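just leaving the lab so this will be short. below you get a single protein, a line of residues and a line of whole numbers that encode the local backbone shape. id like you to explain what the token line says about the fold, in plain words if possible. thanks a lot i owe you, the record is right below:

…
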Amino acid sequence: MSFRVAFLALLVTGCGSSEGDRGATLRADIAGSNAEARRVATAASQAGLTSVDGTGQVVPGLASSWRIADDGLSVIFRLRPRSWPDGKPVTASDVVASFRHASSAGSHNPLRTLLSGFENGAAVVGGTKPPSALGVGAPIDNVVEIRLAGAMPNLLAMLAEPEFAVTRAGLKLPLGPFRVDDLATVPIALDRNPAMPGSGAVSIAGIALTAVDDPGAAIARFARDRTDLVIGQGLAGFDDARLLAASKALRVEPTWGVYGYLVNTTRGPLADVRVRRALAMAIDRDDLGSRLFGVALPPVLGLVPPLPSQRVPVLPDWAIAAPAARLELARQLLTAAGFSAIAPLTVTISLPDAREHALVAAAIATDWARIGVRTLTIARPDVLHAKTIARGAFELALVERTSATDTPLAFLLPFTCAAKAGGYCNAGADASLAAAVATADPVAQAATFGGAEAAMIADTPFIPLFAPIRWALVARHVTGWSGNAGGQHPLALLGIARGKSSKP
């Protein structure tokens, strides 16, 4: 069956009963890496101090309640009675051990830098203090205290991330609504966890989770009714997914994120900040998404996207200039850097191999041509693209960065000297960022974060373009899906309408 024939067949499929099928298996495809599929599986099979509901709101997890003390610098969590699958009680000491493991250099936790907001967190993450110094304690068996270095309004949402699930001695014993035997299987099979109190409230019997490298293949599987749900990972695949918009299967939501080009600041023409600034200011971002994909992609000029907690965006000094004035200033900067019509600048962009990324790059190349810049692109599979960035073997490299929690740290920490993104380092900006983390007053903290971002923006280690969208294909018989900017869609809270379940 062709893709378009399958699409037409999908349009005439009935919706079925709204009553949930408790014996159903939800088939979900992750249009991305195995790592992301394992993360989704962890979210369904593990539990943290807090959790999120289907709309992205924070709700109790292992902690039944919490209270804030000491002017907001101490948060006390009271644990609900829970047991590990072997019958041993879940204790506050287990929680402390989990955080210490997450903060250690050997944990490879991708969110460990966010623990910098804990007392001594920056020193622990930086390796100058041991994990035992992290500001997490267990005064009694069912109480956990987290001590903060400064204001951390996103703490409760952060604790709901699967990266901060509570484990025991590094073992992935299931405390969540589902359990999984082997994360290496294809698909990853999860079944209802009978050891979890309240597991009877879960409306499906299991989840079959498949990582699909090629978004187009995942979309085709959805069109052939081989899967109930496709969750996109970034812009790749969105253009193909739009073909299914008429069936109301396509769900699009904004993100807290930035799509743009990481700059290698250590060598070649882009080591000159004048060149980097010229490239950044010559781009027409205003209607880029509408022109290319028929959807609004809010322009981003700084390193941090629009966030509820950051009401005033930090902008580069050239942002107030009219478009024509920006182009003229960009030409002047390139001339001062030694480039001209006789000796034009040529830049190369490294991209993941997806048509959507190529379309954006072509539009940017058109903008840069107006200031005499030639653009080449090199497309690689996702894994090779990531390795290219890790090796620093690029001039410009596409990065899509999103965060499920409302915090500028997620977007500023990647540009610290410790991160070495593109070889960039600004010790003064790092000092401002550290001061922001340690600031207790939220208003003063936001201003200090802004100062750190402004210092980084002046150096232009990154050329932001827009805030990306998140897309998914959701079959009409899947219930419980609700859009939200944090992209929080716990699979355990989804259901299958009765009479619509299928075997994976």
Notes: Residues 257-466 form a domain with the Dipeptide-binding Protein; domain 3 fold (CATH 3.10.105.10). Residues 1-18 have pLDDT under 50 and may be disordered. The longest strand covers residues 345-352.
